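Table S2 (continued). Query chain:
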Amino acid sequence: MKKRMLSLLLALGMGLSLAACGETETTDVPSKAPAGDGSWAVYWYLCGSDLESNYGCATTDLNELLEVQLPENVTVVIETGGAAEWQNDQVDASKLQRWVYTSDGLELVDEQDTADMGDAQTLQDFLEFASENYPADKTAVTFWNHGGGSVSGAAFDELHDYDSLDLTELYQAFNAVWPADKENPSLELVGFDTCLMATVDVAATFQNFAKYLVASEETEPGNGWLYSGWAGALAENPAMEGQELGTVICDTYYEGCQEAGTEDQTTLSLTDLTQLTPLLDAYEAFGQEALTVAAQDPAFFAELGRAAAKSENYGGNTREQGFTNMVDLGDLARKSSDLLDSAQAVTDALSDCVLYQVGGIYRAQASGLSCYYSYNGDTDDLDAYTRVGTGQAFKSLYTYELTGQLDESEVQDLPGIQELQNVVTLKDMNWDDAPLDLNDDGNAVLTLGSQANDVLASIGFSLMYVDEENDQMLYLGTDNDMTADWDNGVFYDNFRGVWGAIDGHIVYMELSYEGDDYNLYSVPILLNDEEYNLQVAYNFTDEAWSILGAAKGLDADSGMASKELRLLEAGDKITTIWMAASYSGDDDFEMYTAEELTVTDSTGFGEAELPDGSYAMVFEMWDAMGNDAYSDAVTFDCENGEIWTTVYE
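Corresponding output:
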């Protein structure tokens, strides 16, 4: 990534001024802007985190901003902090620093002792400083950092154990500066140049403070928003309103991603928060109908789980990448429309309040806002969500799903429900080591019966290489290339003797999204000795594989999603990673490095014929509560392109 240092801007005449400041010294400014004067102020909360200390991403975006010559009626107020090191000579990592960029250039106007940028008070102090000293006719507040979705929030401070601002803290800070007023919000726009923050819960948080929200459902690549693009457009036309600015932010972001080659999985949307209430009402009714149906027949959880498994979801949601538990709200509604009559009202309301969005070819189902869905069945994560999420119905739905219980008052509010039924899970089914059969075509067949439709949210398979002579098993990963008869609970393998490979080198890969038009896979690798997950897509229309880039995945402790999408470059060293265990023992699979290869201009991903040897496949079953079960194994002996299949009685 090209990093132009702020110091170079002096030579370019950009007017960088580093005033000598005391702890609370500020530049004299008007107490308020004349009403209706057409002025704009952007308050930029720039928490650099490891994105700056490791990659200089914040410095890059500062430099993009400084390419723009602002007019007299546009001001950008910036607070920097939250990074162990800044990749320029001006920003002091040991301080919270406040900068103002105007038609006269960039000036340091205030310094404070370092403080946690993931704390509500730190944000409140900055917003008070900016609004009191640099008011304007129209105001936007933007956040720059990592994001983690509805539960984890944004602005992860590297200096304070990656503490972040959750939605409660964001509301608290904004409400202290601009008292909540849904009918007459103080701000034109709130924006998140972060991952995963275009959620219905984030929108509900800010509808009391701003007219518009700009954020991404999916993780953002490291290039982020294009500041020279949208700030340049604002400089040329300060008369624009928040809707037009939000549209420009989306368009220039996508243009920047196209230029960087990171556009395939991008999302960015503009939501009209003044039109959000009908969506929140429809979302609550959607959840309430789901809860009522589930209380009548808990088998509904499996049906909803299958809809969620097929819905576009963001941030990974696999064991390798971690679980954000964020799913596209519109896609979930569409895919459950045959289950719930209220789904249509959700899609209608979304189309009314999401005014504009951009997205890549592998995010074609994005509706602009995501919502929480408990993919992994983690009750701690759900508890955290219940504290910050909007509405009540879906919180109750997932509580009933994961615990089998509800408060007595919640049960009484459900029409026609006297008491809750027991929720049947995989733990109740005794399907571990379920036997397999062979059909006349040589396919392994798992027969579970009609109960599978009431219990399973998803089914796939795991593939292993078996070396009995050397007492070793290699776990190659998961896929869903199989035929499913859900009505009768019968499942057939479609094993073809091939597996995913980088330049012909077989890899461990994990299915991360199963769609109608494409599948997405995660491939753990070492890239130049750093741990990454290679993002790979298979397009059913083109019958082609493609490498989208490499990402770090979700931080297990903080819930922080990686913002860096690393494109492969010629000369990069890739070390493939496999998972191994003994054949005879009960030890768990552990990762180990396998082969090293060098990336070339023609490096690609595709299917490779499996080497001669023995392979074991097990059908892997999941329920909606995150429980799993594994069938008995079917063995494939591959030799010279021929496959012999064996199941054991």
